[in-house]
Amino acid sequence: MTLLELTDVTASYGPVQVLSGVTLSVPEGGAVGILGANGAGKTTTLRAISGTVRTGGRITFGGRDIRGLRADRVAALGIAHVPEGRGTLAQLNVRENLRVGAYLRKDRKAIGTDIDYCLDLFPQLKERIGSRAAALSGGEQQMLAVARAFMAKPKLLLLDEASLGLAPSTAKAVYEAIGRLRRESGIAMLVVEQNANLAFTLVDTATILETGRSVLTGPSDELKGMDEIRRAYLGG
Amino acid sequence: METFIQLVVDGLSQGSIYAALALAIVLVNQATGLINFAQGGLAVLSAYIAYVFVQLGLPTILGILIAVVISFFIGALVERFLIRRFERGDPDTAVVVTIGLLTLVTGISALFWGYNNRQFPSLFPLGTIDLFGAVVSIRSIGTTLTIVAIMVVLQLLFLRTKLGLALRAVADNPSSAAFSGLPVGRLLMIGWGLAAGLGAVAGSLVAPSLTLTPGMMDFALVYALAAVILGGLSSPIGAVVAAWSIGILENLAAVYVPLIGHDLKIAVPFILIFVILIVRPQGLFGRKVVVRV
Lengths: 236, 293
Description:
The structure holds two protein chains of two kinds. Chain A is α/β, with parallel strands linked by helices.
């Protein structure tokens, strides 16, 4: 079953067109990567889905047309966006950030259980539970951003450059925890990642973008080591 | 000693006037991230609205409650149709817009009700009681207690309720808050509405002693801003404690520091601001804003 489907999606910031034809799909429970060089339109593709950029083409989620919906409506449908740069709520503490993540939920008891699950998934956050997000390290902020998105109990997680600015070992730890989250929750994921090796630890298939257009889609195993990957990243 | 106690008590009641407005400023700041200079002007307009209903023969408390409700909608509409246009841009622009709004709202009050002082009835009976040798009016006790109650309610709202959490999240980072499904626009309207409703209480509380004029709050606004800088923009308790301290220090300095006297006592809060901004820029009770990239 297809959960998310993008067909010939275009997007522009003012007069500057960034996407000129992105087509990809995420099956229910699946994990799909978006790979490509800087400026290929990876982040914008996620923003088109979460309703934070002007968009053309067709975007369906669970069979429903969601193109042009406001960001909070998209979130209410079950799509949680972990933006580039983490977007934690800086002046709120860790627990408050997690509770904001669960804003739309009514099952108060389960929220407590899920907060405990997040702290088990990211034990470092447990020690910082009362600290404001602004005081966390980059890695901890990234963990908090992922945990907050999980607190919404989404059907689909949009993950943007979770390794950005992190030490390699921290980035690896973050991806391992996300992998565990995926196995245990079955949440579908659409993952933008510069570091293709990290991405391949998480995703089953990947789509390669070049200058705002999807040029190739295939299973991770086939894409690993292919020339297109190298070209996409090295621009040669 | 009796003089001292009298000065402290008078300072407290004076400080409560600043505190009422300071709380509304903290509320808007916590809920939208802005400083609203129009808060005083809106509070005066609200007091005039309460005045109209009292003139129609309604009990004072009912007139004030009606004004609170109407002010909530005025605040929400001001956010929706005016401030909304400036929220995405430079915050400084939005602050300048609120200064313009202050002038506009004060003008509207003057247009309808003129510049003559009007007598606004007090919620509390006239009369005084004796407290440790100082004469205290029941009015200022009532005002002070009301301020304390509002402060407690605000503190609970922000720290203990889901609405308070959502308001703070939106003020902190609106676009990120939307990713968790928070209806940002509606929450901003509620924040402004609540602050305007609180302003209506503030205006009605202080109108009996200041007498109702369009510029009634101009003076208090300066002190209220001093209080929120001293107490920290993020802390209702801090704002109230700071407002009281200003009221008390101002009175004490006027009598006990000959150099200052009654002519220079207005300078006291501002000297305090200088000292605080140098020593502890986040305010006495506020949190330091740390941004890490």
